[in-house]
Design brief:
The strands form three sheets. The chain has a seven-stranded mixed beta sheet with strand order 3-2-1-6-9-11-12, sandwiched between helices. It is built from four helices and twelve strands. The two termini are 26 Å apart. Strand 7 and strand 8 form a beta hairpin. The longest helix has 16 residues. It has one domain: 3-Layer(aba) Sandwich (Rossmann fold), CATH 3.40.50.10420. The protein is globular. The chain is of the alpha/beta class.
């Protein structure tokens, strides 16, 4: 158990945790980052839910988040990625042949041109959620913008299966939470895919 695991959610703020965890993640060597990312990919590929999902929402790695990009050339799945639109996320279909329509946005993350087709909630089978950290109850620490909190709190998205993607060093015992935080149904790290049946809003097998 590391020092962050021992942190008391009542005394350690989200801001402090976010700063320390990002610093730790950025300290990974490129080789270690790649190896851990590839192990996460292997665990996802072994998941029954992943295998049967037609349309999956994901993310482009930012600040040494686990890199899932080797999955995006798998044409058994259709991939969607977000664009920040005011205080919300809109989701657009990724087509490698049209990558020229994607540019770096305000946060330095690839975002689509407005002409790229969008995805509606009823088309989506699974959401792979980026995070600074997740805990053993399924709660997630994000970057502070609240985009995923708002998404997962909406009626249109609340029933979608969600898997948080973090390295094992950011999978903590407890995170400080607020009333609007929504737990995820699973967390995948380089050591495996863990599920939280009590958090499931719908019937599915991860």
């Amino acid at each position: 158990m590391n020092d962050l695991d021992r942190a008391c959610p009542n005394t350690v703020s989200k801001v402090e945790l976010r700063r320390d965890l990002l610093k730790k993640r950025l300290s990974l060597s490129k080789g270690e980052w790649r190896l851990k990312s590839d192990r996460i990919i292997s665990h996802l590929q072994a998941s029954p839910l992943f295998a049967k999902s037609r349309t999956i929402l994901a993310y482009f790695s930012f600040r040494q988040e686990p890199d899932l990009s080797p999955l995006f050339s798998d044409f058994h799945h259709r991939w969607g990625f977000p664009r920040c639109a005011n205080n919300a996320l809109s989701w657009h279909i990724w087509m490698p042949t049209e990558s020229h329509l994607w540019q770096r946005g305000a946060y330095g993350i690839l975002e689509p041109d407005l002409t790229v087709p969008t995805l509606e909630p009823d088309e989506v089978d699974l959401i792979l959620v980026p995070a600074v950290a997740c805990d053993h109850r399924g709660y997630r620490l994000g970057y502070g913008g609240g985009y995923y909190d708002r998404l997962l709190s909406s009626d249109m998205w609340a029933s979608k299966p969600t898997i948080g993607i973090v390295f094992e060093s950011a999978y903590l015992q407890h995170l400080p939470i607020d009333s609007w935080d929504k737990p995820l149904q699973g967390v995948c790290t380089e050591t495996g895919l863990l599920t939280f049946e009590s958090n499931s809003a719908c019937n599915f097998e991860i």
